[in-house]
């Protein structure tokens, strides 16, 4: 069953996503791509969390956890990339 | 154990990814941000990643079948992730903007310091004239040059009326502050001004200043640059005056020298004319008694005035030969004088030059024979030309006479050659030859090359000079090649048609 906090999570996420996207201008283009992909994968995970309560539970549940895994991988890759370049900020 | 291994695997992967990201962010240097911003951004990012680490642990435990005790907490704190990320990015953006602004301010301050220093030490006076024609800014050089003083409201005012008269007649005063304030642009205009008791020459340039507020569309005053060029202009004027004085002095000197030269030239011409006149008169006056002497010596020699003894006949013969020789000299002098004054009139006519060469050779042959010389002629059967036969014969006579005169033994050979539009006559002898140092002067009038041992030769020294002048008159040239003890070769080359040669010469001169 869909839980109310999951809906609130998604609503808050959708509300602040434009703010996040407008803030990524401070990053270099390659880092921006990581951030956008990271945010999108988290949004997909949140949507899947809600969707699994209505239909195709197995599919959406797997998708949700896979998206978290993808987001984790992107976060790790992005921060390693920043480390290698000595910074993420646009010069 | 759970029946969802794929989900558990994904959760473990998520846990590892977020854990690595958490560790990296914790250690990531943020050099572009100051310490406070760095702490805030890092703290927010770590919080967001920490929540996902926690969520991943919770999921692993739940889906791994260990415990679902953390799940409720996970559901509640996950709501913070997106706001935390947004806040971290917002903070980072703010920090970046502050950093950029700070850099811009530093650059502006550096630029301002540079311009201020430039203005302070520049020898060029700089001032800004506003739209009301008032001086809003002036550097030290401008204050000094124009005698400016600061008034109460911070503007500058000239001590004396500032009207710099243009140095080009008819132009409006350059330093008219109202016109400059309206944005007038001038470039390096020279003007004269009297300020603070000094007379100055200024070079004035101006350009309207663009307004920073509206992207440079309107003007916020006019920048006026003033350079004191009094010394430079004085030096330039002095140099120009000196140049004029020098030119005048030079002109005067040239005029004086020209007058002297003209006078000397006139005197020389008069002296030369007198000399020529004297020569002509003497020669002419000599001819008459000489002819009388020759005539009567002929009469005596032929016995018309009575039979002479052998000794008397020999002496009369000597008188006759000496008279002929003297007459030759006088004739040569007259001819040389005529040639020098270009009185030689070329009377061109068609004739056979081969026949003329043979005739002259025949005439000279008795003389050659008397000296034991062989005189030979190598010439074509006939060679028709259009020239002056009298002058051609004269040149040939002179060359042959010289060759015979200066050849003790051997031969004299005359060779005539057809060279197309020209022909040549070569007189080659086996005589004493001419020293090489005498060759350049051999065609000069009255010059005689020294004989063997430096002995003076007989003759007037006019024969070869006449040859050269005649060759010139006929449009040709004469040349010599000689070696002492071996002989000499004189070659004269003349045009076949003296009229064509004269026409070509006139055309080339034109």
Largest sheet of chain A at a glance? none
How far is it from the N-terminal to the C-terminal residue of chain A, by CA?
48 Å
Shape of chain A: elongated
- The largest beta-sheet of chain B arranges its strands as 2-1-8-7-6-5
Reading the helices and strands of chain B in chain order gives HHHHEEHEEEHEEEHHEHEEHEEHEEH
> From the structure provided, what is the oligomeric state, counting identical versus distinct chains?
heterodimer
Rg value of chain B: 58 Å
> Structural class of the secondary structure composition of chain B?
alpha+beta
| Strand runs of chain A, count | 0
Radius of gyration of chain A: 15 Å
Spans where pLDDT lies below 50 across 5 or more residues of chain A: none
Taken in chain order, the helices and strands of chain A follow as HHH
The outline of chain B comes out as elongated
Tags for this model:
heterodimer, A: 91 residues, mainly alpha, 3 helices, B: 510 residues, alpha+beta, 6-stranded antiparallel beta sheet, 5-stranded mixed beta sheet, 12 helices, 19% strand
Topology:
The complex is a heterodimer of chains A (about 90) and B (about 500).
Chain A: H1 4-23, H2 29-51, H3 57-85
Helix pairs in contact in A: 1-2, 2-3
Chain B: H1 5-27, H2 35-63, H3 71-77, H4 81-121, E1 125-129, E2 135-138, H5 140-146, E3 148-150, E4 156-158, E5 165-166, H6 177-181, E6 186-195, E7 198-210, E8 219-228, H7 230-301, H8 310-340, E9 349-352, H9 353-370, E10 374-378, E11 384-387, H10 389-405, E12 411-418, E13 422-429, H11 463-473, E14 477-483, E15 487-495, H12 498-509
Parallel strand pairs in B: 10-12
Antiparallel strand pairs in B: 1-2, 1-8, 3-4, 5-6, 6-7, 7-8, 9-11, 12-13, 13-15, 14-15
Helix pairs in contact in B: 1-2, 2-3, 2-4, 7-8, 8-11, 9-10, 10-11
Task: Explain what you see.
The complex is a heterodimer of chains A (91) and B (510). In chain A, α1 (4-23) packs antiparallel against α2 (29-51) and α2 (29-51) packs antiparallel against α3 (57-85). Chain A has 91 residues and is mainly α. Chain A has helices spanning 4-23, 29-51, 57-85. Chain A has one domain. Chain A has three helices and no strands. Chain B is an alpha+beta fold and 510 residues long. Chain B contains twelve helices and 15 strands. In chain B, the strands form four sheets. Chain B has a six-stranded antiparallel sheet with strand order 2-1-8-7-6-5. In chain B, strands 10-12-13-15-14 form a five-stranded mixed sheet. In chain B, β7 and β8 (219-228) form a beta hairpin. In chain B, α9 (353-370) runs parallel beside α10 and α10 (389-405) packs antiparallel against α11 (463-473). Chain B starts with a helix and ends with a helix. The chains are: A mainly alpha (91), B alpha+beta (510). At the A-B interface, α1, α2 and α3 of A face α1, α2 and α4 of B.
């Amino acid at each position: 069953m869909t839980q109310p906090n999951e809906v609130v999570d998604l609503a808050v996420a959708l509300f602040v996503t434009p703010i996040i996207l407008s803030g990524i201008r401070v990053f270099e283009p390659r880092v921006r791509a990581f951030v956008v992909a990271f945010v999108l994968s988290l949004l997909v995970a949140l949507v899947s969390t809600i969707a699994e309560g209505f239909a195709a539970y197995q599919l959406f549940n797997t998708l949700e956890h896979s998206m978290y895994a993808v987001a984790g991988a992107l976060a790790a890759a992005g921060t390693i990339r920043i480390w290698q370049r000595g910074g993420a900020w646009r010069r | 154990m759970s029946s969802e291994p794929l989900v558990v695997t994904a959760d473990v992967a998520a846990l590892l990814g977020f854990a690595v990201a958490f560790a990296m962010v914790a250690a990531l240097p943020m050099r572009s941000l100051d310490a406070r911003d760095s702490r805030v951004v890092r703290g927010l990012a770590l919080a967001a990643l920490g929540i996902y680490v926690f969520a991943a642990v919770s999921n692993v435990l739940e889906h791994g079948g260990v415990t679902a005790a953390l799940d409720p907490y996970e559901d509640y704190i996950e709501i913070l992730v997106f706001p935390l990320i947004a806040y971290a990015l917002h903070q980072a953006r703010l920090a970046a903007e502050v950093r950029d602004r700070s850099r811009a301010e530093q650059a502006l301050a550096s630029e301002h310091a540079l311009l201020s220093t430039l203005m302070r030490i520049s020898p060029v006076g700089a001032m800004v004239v506003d739209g009301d024609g008032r001086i809003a800014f002036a550097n030290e050089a401008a204050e000094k040059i124009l005698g400016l003083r600061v008034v109460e409201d911070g503007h500058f005012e000239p001590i004396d009326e500032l009207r710099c008269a243009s140095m080009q007649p008819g132009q409006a005063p350059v330093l008219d502050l109202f016109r400059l304030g309206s944005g007038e642009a001038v470039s390096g205009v020279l003007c004269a001004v009297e300020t603070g008791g000094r007379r100055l020459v200024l070079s004035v340039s101006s350009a309207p200043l663009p307004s920073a507020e509206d992207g440079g569309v309107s003007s916020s005053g006019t920048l006026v640059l003033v350079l004191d060029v009094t010394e430079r202009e004085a030096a330039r004027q002095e140099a120009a005056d000196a140049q004029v004085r020098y030119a005048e002095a030079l002109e005067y000197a040239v005029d004086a020298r020209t007058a002297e030269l003209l006078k000397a030239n006139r005197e020389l011409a008069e002296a030369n004319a007198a000399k020529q006149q004297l020569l002509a008169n003497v020669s002419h006056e000599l001819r008459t008694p000489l002819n009388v002497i020759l005539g009567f010596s002929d009469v005596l020699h032929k016995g018309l005035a009575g039979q002479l003894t052998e000794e008397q006949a020999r002496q009369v013969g000597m008188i006759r030969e000496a008279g002929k020789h003297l007459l030759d000299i006088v004739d040569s002098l007259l001819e040389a004088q005529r040639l020098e004054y270009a009185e030689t009139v070329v009377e061109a006519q068609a004739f056979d030059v081969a026949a003329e060469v043979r005739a002259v050779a025949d005439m000279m042959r008795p003389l050659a024979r008397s000296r034991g010389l062989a005189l030979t002629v190598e010439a074509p059967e006939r060679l028709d030309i259009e020239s002056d036969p009298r002058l051609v014969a004269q040149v040939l006579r002179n060359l042959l006479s010289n060759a015979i005169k200066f050849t003790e033994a051997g031969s004299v050979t005359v060779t005539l050659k057809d060279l197309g539009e020209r022909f040549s006559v070569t007189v080659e002898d086996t005589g004493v030859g001419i020293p090489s140092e005498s060759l350049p002067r051999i065609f000069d009038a009255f010059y005689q090359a020294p004989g063997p041992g430096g002995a003076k030769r007989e003759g007037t020294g006019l024969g070869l000079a006449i040859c050269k002048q005649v060759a010139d008159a006929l449009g040709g040239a004469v040349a010599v090649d000689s070696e002492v003890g071996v002989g000499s070769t004189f070659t004269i080359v003349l045009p076949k048609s003296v009229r064509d040669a004269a026409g070509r010469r006139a055309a080339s001169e034109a």
